[in-house]
Design brief:
Structural class: alpha+beta
Strand content: 15-25%
CATH topology: Beta-lactamase
Number of helices: 4
Shape: globular
CATH class: Alpha Beta
CATH superfamily: DD-peptidase/beta-lactamase superfamily
């Protein structure tokens, strides 16, 4: 089974992610935004093969579906794997790909010309996803909006 098939079968399909694909294995949609870095558009970069450190192009709605399947419905990982995934092994507020700030879990990242962040409040299942077509953007909005929902 190819890498793309595994991602589709194990993550995209069970999460209901209909507008996501592995970078470099599908043409960019016409409405794909231009990323910006160092004052230049970066669209051409995304016409090439992806890399192993990420490589998923998605929508905010699909990322929210993924977070809901992973953290709320808990349908993507076994209970044992989920415990390992969300355990702060090194007491550094970081698990196996998950950043912790109290009850708020998530991940930030980006690529050439883009920044992204997704967070979930484990107390109520609220999810905030923020994508911007700018490199190294301030991504604190997601955590701020989730905290404002509680206060």
């Amino acid at each position: 089974m190819s890498f793309v098939s595994v991602i589709e079968h194990e993550i995209f399909n069970p999460s209901g992610m209909e507008h996501s694909f592995v970078f470099g294995f599908k043409s960019l949609p016409d409405d794909f935004p231009n990323g910006h870095e160092a004052g230049e558009h970066q669209r051409d970069y995304y016409k090439n093969q992806g890399f192993g450190d990420g490589g998923v192009i998605s929508t905010a709605a699909d990322v929210a579906r993924f977070y809901r399947a992973l953290f709320v419905k808990k349908t993507l990982l076994s209970a044992m794997l989920m415990e390992d995934f969300t355990d702060d092994h090194l007491t550094s507020n970081y698990g196996l790909g998950v950043e912790f700030n109290g009850p708020i879990l998530g991940h930030s990242g980006g690529d050439l010309g883009f920044s992204s962040e997704a967070r979930i409040d484990t107390r109520n299942g609220a999810i905030a996803v923020y994508f911007i077509s700018q490199a190294d953007a301030n991504m604190s909005w997601t955590e701020e909006v989730l905290r404002d929902l509680i206060e």
